[in-house]
Amino acid sequence: MEKWLAEIRKEFKKNGDPIKAQGAKAYLLNQFEFFGVMTPTRRKISKAFYTSHPIQNHAALSTIVKICFKQPEREMHYFGLEWLGFSRSLWCKQTLALIEWILTHESWWDTVDSTNSHVIGLFFKKFPEYIPTYTEKWNQSNNIWLQRTSILFQLSYKKETNTELLSKYIEQRIAHPNFFIRKAIGWALRAYAHHNPKWVKTFVKSHPQLSPLSVREALKHQL
Predict the structure, then answer these.
(1) Tens digits of residue pLDDT in 105-154
(2) Contact, 78 vs 42, CB < 8 A?
(3) How far apart are CA 149 and CA 153, in angstroms?
(4) Cβ atoms 108, 28 nearer than 8 A
(5) How far apart are the first and last CA of the chain?
(6) What are phi and psi of 152, to 5 degrees?
(7) What is the crossing angle of helices 58-69 and 94-103, to 10°?
(8) Per residue in 182-219, pLDDT tens?
(9) To 5 degrees, how large is the angle CA 89–CA 93–CA 97?
(10) pTM, whole model, 2 decimals?
(11) How many Å apart are CA 120 and CA 157, to the nearest integer?
């Protein structure tokens, strides 16, 4: 694994830009280091690497993802979580533990939401039997990133959105003071409004406890 780690780090460093790295670092409040690789370039490099370095089992996948997250550069974190998304054939119940690990390590909105779009939404489509237990656990946890994910995991579900769960998870966190939770509530409602605007308007109207931020986000394209 040391060999592949050195390979991908070399590629990212070669394609990085120190000025862009500083900008990216500032954008995420100076919490992480960056190579400064633009997203399209990074993903092109990553996809080629995933294809040429097949992972044989879930244990190896888990180890690789965690090694990536121990690197100082944020691009390595993206590389690890997107490798998990690329490795769908290895997904199983054990993947849930790895998902939770990612969401609770080096956590910020960028990796949390990327994990949701590259892995979590798709994982629950493949294994819907795990939705009730795990999303409820996340919603009831004390970790804001798990809470946020429980509200947002259906972003891509469109008309298949389970509105009973969406309502429940929003209502259970409706008074939360954290910006990222309030933003998530509004974002989830706005996404569903593209497919059922009447339902969203009714929900907002019947929940005066919603924060102004959540309401603005929910009705952003309906005002």
Answers:
(1) 999 999 999 999 999 999 999 999 999 999 999 999 999 999 999 999 99
(2) yes
(3) 6
(4) yes
(5) 53
(6) -100, -5
(7) 0
(8) 999 999 999 999 999 999 999 999 999 999 999 999 99
(9) 110
(10) 0.95
(11) 12
